[in-house]
Specification:
Layout: E1 4-6, E2 14-15, E3 31-34, E4 42-49, E5 57-65, E6 71-72, E7 84-85, E8 104-114, H1 126-133, E9 137-148
Parallel strand pairs: 2-9
Antiparallel strand pairs: 1-3, 3-6, 4-5, 4-8, 5-7, 8-9
Length: 153
């Protein structure tokens, strides 16, 4: 079996509950993973939106997640060392929920199992993280959520 990623709050390719968006509480959803490949030393989680007009929009970047961790609780604020937060597209180290300006957008939660721990400081950019991950990805799992805003804010 290969690495898998899921949430107790939404199925793959289904609507993300409003609670986890800018129209709700804007908190991170619970995520869990299983079938960890042999040799995994850490995980990287990247949540992004490829449907933006100006390219990929990063909503959440978490890296150096310990192999002892197989889930992130809802609205997680405290991360166990050596876990670090990367800069999202708002240039902050936190979760930013779905908030599409118009239409339905797809949000990709990508989990990478790595055979190393990334030698990067807190607040690294996605580009630095992806460069450091190169040649170290054992497996990847993806969970896709969709969201369309119902209110104009």
């Amino acid at each position: 079996m290969s690495l898998s990623l899921s949430s107790t709050e939404f199925e793959n390719n289904s609507e993300i509950p409003i609670k986890y968006t800018c129209d709700g509480e804007d908190i991170s959803p619970p995520l869990e993973w299983s079938n960890i490949p042999k040799g995994t030393k850490s995980f990287v989680l990247i949540m992004d939106d490829p449907d933006t007009t100006n390219g990929m929009w990063d909503h959440w970047i978490v890296y150096n997640i310990s192999t002892e961790i197989t889930k992130l609780e809802e609205n997680i604020k405290t991360l166990v060392e050596p876990t670090k937060l990367g800069l999202n597209s708002w240039r902050v180290k936190e979760y930013g929920g779905p908030c599409p300006p118009s239409g339905e957008h797809h949000y990709y939660f990508k989990l990478y199992a790595l055979n190393n721990i990334l030698p990067l400081p807190e607040g690294a950019s996605r580009l630095h993280i992806e460069n450091a991950m190169e040649q170290h990805i054992l497996e990847q799992a993806v969970l896709i959520g969709r969201y369309t805003r119902t209110k104009n804010t």
